[in-house]
Each structure stands twice: as C-alpha cells, then as structure tokens.
C-alpha cells in the first residue's frame, strides 16, 4: 500500500509540474526558478517559520504545503499548493491550502493564493484556486464559474490583491510557452505521419471541437477522432457555415493519431482552449506558431502579427460606424483587430460587439481550409456568423463593391509569375471601398520604387496618406520579407501640396530569439501612431514630404537622419576595424602571396580613378560623405564572377562575408588602397574598409578618399553607411547620389578613438603576417605612420576615461 501511495504521489507531482509549466511558471527551485517543494524549504528559515506548528497530522507539530510558488527576487510566497492523489480528496486539499497553510501566510503578513490540485493523470484531475479577500477565502472565477487552471504569473499578481476582484480573464501564455507546446504538438503530428501543410488544420479542428464540447470529448482511442470531427461539424453548422463544415477535420483512419490525440487534447486543455472568449486570439496566435512548420509560405500567406494588425486598425480609426473588409482574410487577424478596437475604443460590451460585427466585418479567402480557420477563429470569439466567405474576392458575386468604409489587408505575396500581383489586390480593395474610404495594406517594399505606372495611376485617383516600413524580421521565423504599410484614401486625387507621412519601425516591441519572437523594450509602434495622427517629424523615425507622380514612395528617401552620437560612431567604427583585422588574420597566407607578387612586379595596383578614367560622383556640401570621397561603381569587367579562377588576388564582392572578400582569384587589375566598399546587392550597405590591394566587382560602390583624407575618416564613413543601410533594399538600390549627402560628423576625439583601434588592430595583423619579412616591413610602415599621428597629439589619446575604457575593451 505505501508503494502504491508513493506512485500516486509521484504522478500528482508530475501533473503539478505540467500544470505550472503550461502557464509559464519556472518550476526550477530558486534562485533560478519559482517553485519550492517540501524537501527544499529547509534552506529558507523565514518560510519554515510561517508554517511552524501547522502539521496535517493530529497532535500538532510542523507542517508544510506540498509546494510553494515564490517571487524569486524577494522569496515572498505567491501561492501555496496542496495536492492529493484522488479526485474525491479535492475538498480536503482545498481546506488544507486555505485554512491551514494559506492562513499561516496571512498571519505572517502575506496574501498568497491557495491552490488545490487533485488527481494523478492529465485527463482526470481538478484544480481549485482561492484568493484572500481581506476577511475570507473566495474561489477565483471566470464568468461566474470557478476556474479550473493555475493562473499565470501576471494573473496571480492581480488575484493576490486582497481588495481586488476574484473574477479572472484568462490571458495568453508567453510566446516561449506557446513555442514549446508547438514543438511538442508538431512532434506528435509528425509521428502520426501528418504532412506539414495539413497540421494547422488538424490542430484547429481539435481546438474547435474541444471548445465546442466544453471539454467533454471522449479521450479513449475508439472515440476521440470521431468526436473531434462531430463537434467541429456542429460548430460550423451552428455558425451557419455548413459549406465549411468538412474543411477542418482529422483522419479517423489514422491509427497512430488515434493514440496520440489524447495527448494533443491534453496540451490544448492546459492552454485553456476550452474557455476561450472573444478577447483572446488563441487560434490565430497558435496557428502563427505552427505556420513555420507548414510550408504555407509557398502560397505567400504571411499572417500578420496581431500588434501590427491593431496598428493598422488604429491608423484607420476603425469605429462602430465602419464596415471593415479584408479581401484576403487568412485566419482573420485584421477582422479581429477591428473587433478588439470596438471593445476598447467604443467601449462596447462583448455581446454588443458580437451583434454588431455580424454585418460590419467582411472577409474573403479562396483557400477552403484557411477560410475555415478564419470562421473558427470568429466562432471562438463568440461570433461565427460574420461575413467571412469562402470565395475569390475577384470573382465572387458577394463581393461588396463600394460598400466598405475601411479595408485592412495583407495580400498574398507572389511566388510565381502566374500568381496574382499585390497591386491587383489593392485595386480590388479600393473597388470595395465607398468614396473617401480608408485603406491600410501591407505590400512588398519593392513596389514602393518599382511599379511606377501603377503608383502614378493610384495617385491620379486616390490620396496617399502614409507609408511605414516594418521590421525586417517581422514575419520570421515563418517567412522573410521586406514589407511596408501603405495608407490610402479612396476617390480623392492626391493633392500636390499635401505632405505624405513616411516612417520606419525598427523596434516593434519584439525580437527574434531561437526561432520565436519574444517581447523587448523600446517599441516604436505607439510613437509612429502618435506621429501619424499629429503629423510630426522625428529624425530617424518619421518625416513628412510632398510627392509627385514621378517620386518613389520608399520611406528611406524622406525620413531625416537622426544625428549619430560620437559613441555610436566609435562603436560602429570599431566593428568595421575588427572585421578588417579578422579577414587579414584569416587570409594571411593569401595576402602574403599577393604582396610578394606586387613586390616582384608581377602586378601593380592602380588608383581607381586613374584605372577607370571616369568622372567621379561627388557632393560639395561640407561635412558630407561626398565632400570627403569620390563615389564610383566597382570594376565593370568583373560584373560576372563565374569566369574567375582560383588565384591569389583579393576580390571584393556584394556577397563577401570576410570584410567583403569574395575570394582570391586569378585577376591582375587591382585597385590601390585605401578605400571603402559598399555592396549594392547581397549584404546591402555592409560597408568595409579595404587596406590591402584588391579588385572590386561592379555590384559594389567604391568610395575613394580625396587627397589628404586620413585613414580613420574611412572607418567613420563606413560606420555611417552601415547605420543608414536600412534606407536601401533590393528595390531601392544604393547609388552614389543617394549616399553622397549623408552627414559625416568628424571630430578630433572620434578620429583619435579610431586611430587607437587601428593601432591595436595593426599589432594583431603584424603577428599574423610576420612569417614574411617583406610583408612585416610593409605592415610595420603602415603601423608606424599611424603611431606618428598619435605621437603628434599624445594628449588626445590620454585625456579621457572613456577612451581609456575603449583601450581596455579592445585589449580584452
């Protein structure tokens, strides 16, 4: 009997760990985690004192709750947890968690939650959560019913407030929790031999069935798949969408899935799918989590992150008076953004919103599974009877020509020449708008500088209000695309004197980490929205400019430069210096061989302007890159590199990764250094300084310093170009005229800092090249000339703590 009890206890501990992990709690022990188990209390005397004399056994003594959730920074209790192996013992677990251990914490000055868990298996357990109101324990509820899950960290903090409400609105788990669950579900589906493209539909079917059945699916292998399909059908029929009833389903003949389905259902139950409500876009977020596994990007379906969809709804000021249309609705992210805005801005209740959106939200998608996913998303929000149509927006008789007041959309990006181009979707969206209707659409960045005829036609009939560049990693890890938001008002020819708002969002509040976009500080989304509404200019973020039919729409052309601090420039210059030294060390044998040939007269490097005989591009404005450099294109004779054979002549190209080096080839037309190279394709804008003779392909620009320009200035110029590379992409190429006006803020302190970096780099390079006396001597002369610059003004090198810190950083 004791052994069976121990087995049951172990299973309950496993269940508790699963329940906590599903809500994002760190189940490691402090200081790394947030969970203390009974055997771990001994290291925390202040916690032991709380429970002294609270034994569960008759006769008194000390007792401890099964587990304790703590704030790992302060070690204060957040929740006391008591577990029992059998469901019938749940009342006992509640009593011990509240009246014994919970009250002990209250007497000690803390107000943690009291959590009771009973059961030993994932499909046969109960959870009860109680909060202290200030004078009694009260069960936490959701829509009046006791919750059956352990709250996450944020929700627990809210419930712990004694005078606060016991009513809880479940929140979406952190992205890393969803990603971990997605990994497990994906593994289970792979083991069930379900192809990538069908996995999102399987997950959505299980989610919808679980929600519609209120968690009453039979989990035994004989019934589970049939129950899932039956509940899905009922959900679509109830939503008056019978044509989509068979679009989301599972294969009942799949024997492996029949066994794995129980675990799949359990995972989704742990994510609270059975209690989804209108304010929680679980399906959309989970579907996006799975999108990286599906191959869906082969049809260009880049599903829009929810905060960007909301930004677009805000920029269009969607209100309860609007009819919102999405001609390519996908899983319904834009329709949901419009719905959420009605709740938050118009202060409508959920029931009022559900009634309103039946006639005010319209969506089309010609992929039956995607349309079904969208309808399911709306069903889970309390409204499956919205105007979501399985149909082609170009051919459907139900398309609402001239009836919508707002269009929010992200059309499929084409992958083949036969795919519908995005501009056709824009034209169709405008057809769906009434006069002066508002359009916000995500488009590929290339359209802003190409498709000139289409852009001119649009301006002759409609008004361009704004263009916003989005982060390059926005759609990763699902897809990689350069994208922009374009904002248009229908039916009013663009006024020549009306400034257009241009902006760039570099930080949208998320960053990519291990395949998942996680939250980070410093989001610029709210700043851009505010600037758009107030029509303000913020250097480096947004600008205003009038345009004509001949002008491009790329924000990089119109946003004023944010002045770079000396610290920023020095840091970027140091990076350029390290990249150059790294390449020198890596390719020291090839460089030595090349310099031997030069010393022997086999090849002679020639200054670029002498070699080309071309008139250089320049800009006379003082303090700009054009005032320090002649800017020219690389050597046209090596536009095509395929004919080059291996050799020992350095060749720099746009795709080079080692200080721009493509490789060492048999090519004798070398350029005399030093100069700066800037890729126009490939690694666009990744500027490098070349201090060794090399050839430069025509897909790069070459910045040749004017006479008397010191070497540190080249590194400063490369740093500025790198910081401004966001202005360019495959659609908007880097050209001499576009980079010549860039400000180059040169100061003595900056040049001194770069000179010190160069000297440190030279010592490293000398060690790599010391195997050859000639090279060592050549490098020594270069280093000596740098030292001469420093010796002339020693006070500059030693005058600042910041510079000394930089010296130590370099040495380390």
Topology:
Elements: H1 2-22, E1 35-37, H2 45-50, E2 67-70, E3 77-84, H3 90-107, E4 113-121, E5 124-132, E6 137-139, E7 141-142, E8 145-146, H4 153-159, H5 175-191, H6 199-212, H7 224-238, H8 255-270, H9 282-294, H10 306-315, E9 324-326, H11 333-344, H12 350-360, E10 361-365, H13 368-379, E11 387-390, E12 404-409, H14 422-432, E13 433-444, H15 452-461, E14 463-469, E15 483-489, E16 500-504, E17 510-513, E18 516-519, H16 525-534, E19 542-545, H17 566-586, H18 588-599, H19 608-612, H20 625-628, E20 629-633, E21 646-652, E22 661-665, E23 675-679, E24 688-690, E25 695-696, E26 700-705, H21 711-723, H22 736-739, H23 748-769, H24 773-792, H25 794-798, H26 801-811
Parallel strand pairs: 3-4, 9-10, 9-12, 10-11, 12-13, 14-16, 21-25
Antiparallel strand pairs: 1-2, 2-3, 4-5, 5-6, 7-8, 13-15, 14-15, 16-19, 17-18, 20-26, 21-22, 23-24, 23-26
Describe this structure in words.
The protein is an alpha/beta fold and 812 residues long. It has 4 domains: 170 residues, no CATH class; 104 residues; 282 residues, Vaccinia Virus protein VP39 (Rossmann fold, 3-Layer(aba) Sandwich); 227 residues, Adenine-n6-DNA-methyltransferase TaqI, Chain A, domain 2 (Alpha-Beta Complex). 39% of the residues lie in helices and 17% in strands. It has a 9-stranded mixed sheet, sandwiched between helices. A 6-stranded mixed sheet has the order 1-2-3-4-5-6, with helices on both faces. Helix 6 crosses helix 7, helix 17 crosses helix 21 and helix 21 packs across helix 23. The chain starts with a helix and ends with a helix.
């Amino acid at each position: 009997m004791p052994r069976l009890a121990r087995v049951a206890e172990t299973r309950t501990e496993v269940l508790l760990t699963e329940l906590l992990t599903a809500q994002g709690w760190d189940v490691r022990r402090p200081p790394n985690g947030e969970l203390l188990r009974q055997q771990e209390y001994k290291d925390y005397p202040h916690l032991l004192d709380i429970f002294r004399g609270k034994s569960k056994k008759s006769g008194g003594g000390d007792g401890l709750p099964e587990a304790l959730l703590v704030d790992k920074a302060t070690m204060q209790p957040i929740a006391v947890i008591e577990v029992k192996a059998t469901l019938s013992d749940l009342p006992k677990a509640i009593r011990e968690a509240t009246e014994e251990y919970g009250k002990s914490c209250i007497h000690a000055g803390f107000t943690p939650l009291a959590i009771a868990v009973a059961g030993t298996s994932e499909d046969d357990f109960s959870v009860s959560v109680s909060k202290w109101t200030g004078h009694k324990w009260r069960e936490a509820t959701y829509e009046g019913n006791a919750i059956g899950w352990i709250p996450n960290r944020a929700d627990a903090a809210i419930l712990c407030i004694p005078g606060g409400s016991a009513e809880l609105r479940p929140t979406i788990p952190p992205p890393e929790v969803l990603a971990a669950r997605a990994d497990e579900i994906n593994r289970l589906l792979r083991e069930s031999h379900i192809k990538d493209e069908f996995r999102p539909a399987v997950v959505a079917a299980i989610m919808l069935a679980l929600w519609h059945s209120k968690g009453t699916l039979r989990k035994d292998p004989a019934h589970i798949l049939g129950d899932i399909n039956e509940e899905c059908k009922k959900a679509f029929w109830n939503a008056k969408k019978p044509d989509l009833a068979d679009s989301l389903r599972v294969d009942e003949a799949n024997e492996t899935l029949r066994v794995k389905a129980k675990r799949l259902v359990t995972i989704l139950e742990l994510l609270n799918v059975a209690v989804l409500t209108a304010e929680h876009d679980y399906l959309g977020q989970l579907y996006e989590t799975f999108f990286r596994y599906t191959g869906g990007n082969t049809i260009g379906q880049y599903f829009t992150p929810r905060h960007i969809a909301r930004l677009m709804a805000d920029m269009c000021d969607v209100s309860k008076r609007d009819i919102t249309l999405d001609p390519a609705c996908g899983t319904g992210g834009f329709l949901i953004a419009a719905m959420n805005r009605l709740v938050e801005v118009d202060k409508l209740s959920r029931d009022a919103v559900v009634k309103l959106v039946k006639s005010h939200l319209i969506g089309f998608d010609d992929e039956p599974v995607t349309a079904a996913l969208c309808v399911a998303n709306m069903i889970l929000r309390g409204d499956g009877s919205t105007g979501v149509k399985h149909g082609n927006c170009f051919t459907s008789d139900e398309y609402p020509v001239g009836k919508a007041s707002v269009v929010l959309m992200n059309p499929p990006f084409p992958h083949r020449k036969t795919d519908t181009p995005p501009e056709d979707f824009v034209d169709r969206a405008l057809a769906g708008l009434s006069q002066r209707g508002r359009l916000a659409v995500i488009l590929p960045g290339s359209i802003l500088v190409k498709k000139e005829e289409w852009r001119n036609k649009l301006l002759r009939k409609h008004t361009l209000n704004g263009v916003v560049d989005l982060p390059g990693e926005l759609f990763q890890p699902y897809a990689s695309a350069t994208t922009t938001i374009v904002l248009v008002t229908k039916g009013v020819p663009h006024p020549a004197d009306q400034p257009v708002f241009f902006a760039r969002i570099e930080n949208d509040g998320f960053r990519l980490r291990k395949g998942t976009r996680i939250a980070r500080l410093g989001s610029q989304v709210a700043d851009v929205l505010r600037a758009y509404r107030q029509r303000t200019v913020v250097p480096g973020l947004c600008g205003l400019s009038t345009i004509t039919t001949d002008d491009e729409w790329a924000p990089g052309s119109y946003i004023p430069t944010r002045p770079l601090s000396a610290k920023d420039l020095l840091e970027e210059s140091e990076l350029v210096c390290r990249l150059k030294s790294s390449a020198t060390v890596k390719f020291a044998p090839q460089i030595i061989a090349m310099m031997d040939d030069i010393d022997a007269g086999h090849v002679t490097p020639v200054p670029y302007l002498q070699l080309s005989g071309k008139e250089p591009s320049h800009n006379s404005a003082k303090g700009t890159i054009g005032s320090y450099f002649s800017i020219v294109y690389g050597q046209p004779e090596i536009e095509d590199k395929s004919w080059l054979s291996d050799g020992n002549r350095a060749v720099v190209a746009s795709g080079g990764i080692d200080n721009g080096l493509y490789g060492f080839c048999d090519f004798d037309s070398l350029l005399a250094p030093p100069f700066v190279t800037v890729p126009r394709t490939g690694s666009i804008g990744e500027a490098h300084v070349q201090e060794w003779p090399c050839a430069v392909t025509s897909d790069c620009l070459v910045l040749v310093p004017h006479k008397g320009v010191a070497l540190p200035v080249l590194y400063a110029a490369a740093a500025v170009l790198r910081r401004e590379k966001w202005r360019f992409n495959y659609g908007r190429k880097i050209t001499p005229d576009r980079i010549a006006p860039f400000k180059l803020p040169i100061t003595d302190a900056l040049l001194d800092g770069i000179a010190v970096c160069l000297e440190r780099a030279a010592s490293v390079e000398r060690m790599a090249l010391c195997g050859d006396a000639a090279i060592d001597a050549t490098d020594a002369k270069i280093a000596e000339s740098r030292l001469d610059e420093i010796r002339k003004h020693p006070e500059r090198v030693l005058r600042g703590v910041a510079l000394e810190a930089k010296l130590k950083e370099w040495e380390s």
